[in-house]
Write a structure and sequence with these properties.
43% of the residues lie in helices and 19% in strands. The chain contains 25 helices and 23 strands. A 7-stranded mixed beta sheet has the order 4-3-8-11-12-1-13. It starts with a helix and ends with a strand.
Amino acid sequence: MIALLLVLSAFPSFAQIADDAARAKNEGNVHFFRAQFARAESAFRYVLARDLNDKESRISLALSLEAQEKHREAFAVWTALNAEAGSIDPFILYHLGRNHLMQGNFSLAQESWTKAVGFLTPPENDSEQALLRLITLMLAVTQHISKDYGGSNANLDYLAEQERVSLGAARYLEGMNCQHLKRAPCALEKLRLALSIDPTQQEARRFLADIQAGYGDIDSAYLDARRYLSAEKDPAYEKIFKAYAAHTLKPVDVLLADRETGFATAWPRLVKDALTERSPALRVGLFATANGEPQALSELSIIAGSSFSVTLAQEGDLAKGKTDESWRVLFLSTPTAMIALLKGNQEFRVANSVLFKTDDPARGSFLIKGARPWGLTESIRSDLQVRGHVLIVARQEGFFAINEIGLEEYLFGVLPYEIGGSSPEEALKAQAILARSYALWRRDQDRYHARKNHPFDACDQVHCQVYKGFLGETQSANEAVRATFGQVVKKDDVFFQIWYHASCGGLLRDGDRKDLRPGAHSLAPGLDAAQSMAQLNPQQLTQFLEFAPFQKTGAQWCFETAPRFSWVRFLSMEQLAQKARNAYPEIGYLKSVAIEERGFDGRVRRIRLSGNKSSRIIDEDFAIRQALAPGALRSAQFTMIPIRINKEQRYFLFIGRGYGHGRGACQVGMINQGKEKISAAQILNHYYPDAKIEHAY
């Protein structure tokens, strides 16, 4: 009897088996969440070895296999699940069709989805409604690739009637379909609509420019090509753009003044809203690139808003000027690099730098017109009027323009472009405090630009904070700056890196914490507030991302019916390969893209670009977003569906949430809290519970 008991005790109990399986399932969920797909596969196989009928783990296994491009093995799992369902399961049919799509079996994908649509019509709940809309988009994409352009547009028309969030990608797809159907007016209409919904779709911008050129509208082609190149580094397309610029019906300067905002400011506007209190000085690099790099210029004109002096660093005053006086600044490359200053018949030449210094620090300003980038002079920058002084710094190729300005006046030109000048009062105050804190942190502690030997403290782009000077100032934003004069947020009496972004998409990124807890950092709708994202099983995580643009959302501060909350991009391998050629030429022609890691916040933290020569790992948020789309993806909180033809990746469907890096304050959330009359202090406490508002000066 004792021997029998000893033998039985050597075997695990049913409870132990269940505990082991539950532990393995949780580990598999975490591995899948972190994009450790091989480990996830092993964990789910362990579970299924103990309970082959665990449907959740079978679905998780199939998704883990697909993420490793083991599509045939995943297909076998989906097929078995579909056969065992007993009745139609539209969610299984969706995944079966998705598997066919990724393998390039387009007719089989459509067959699965058509069955699902028949069952889902009409949908009985919000999840079924979201699934129906997602399948409709998938059908349209599949039909487009299969060259059934009419069928694709029919599904997109249906989606336009049903979708909860306007999808710029759907309109872009319609535009491409119309062009293939030789319906030019339709193509132009849909592409313009796509860009009005989501201006970040630079692929649509370039396509629109080329269509317009093809139909002889060179003026419009030039304008859209200019916008495209302002967001996308594309040396090959610059040659096409220069050809457009050379053949516009109107001179480029006249065309821009007629058709674009920001080019018709003839004289400096009067500065009435002047601060009597001075604030710390800040040097802002004007016309910077999207990455915050200085933009070398070849020429510009400066018109003074008040009396001023032209000053050299060593020699002192070079000349005196008066209100509305215009000076032209030119870069001369021979016989040696220098700056030429032209005023009427007078010419001055400067080897290093020159300062246009206003005589009235409170009300003085300068209007900068006709700024032309070095090497791409056809891409004229819009008019920019700035308070304070303007410093011109010569380099070997071109010169830099820098605005020397008081920090408070700088904020006047930041708030309208970072959060919107018409935002609620308390949201504007909160933004003013954040922007002030960020500027001081960037200047004094981070010193990013100083470390890179840039001659300024902060750039004027989203890389730092968007700054467009005096012309876009609003009274409400200026009042918010005044009301919070000198106020900053600090932790333990020191500045810290202030993060804020346009939209979190329902999920804030909390640095490198290994969990996402409730409280100040709310999880997305439909999730238990106490549940960590990493506890979602693969199907839940996939639906969390893929259903986002099509699903009703509960009351959230961060929600809005706009593509900042959720979005879709449809791109070709050719478009991504072009990006890789420009940014990572060492890898050769891009052959595949893979997600290799997600952070604890669910955002993609590491991707691999594989070419015919080598591969490249990218592990920085903005660099990942830039690598995967013309311009950039809106955020790194996305799922990627690669679509193959003849076993090679040829297209990509990205579905994502949010706009920006997701850290710190969500500006949409700030605005919505402001609408509820929540105070600036409470808004900031919501996002930075460990910080305090203090006076820096």
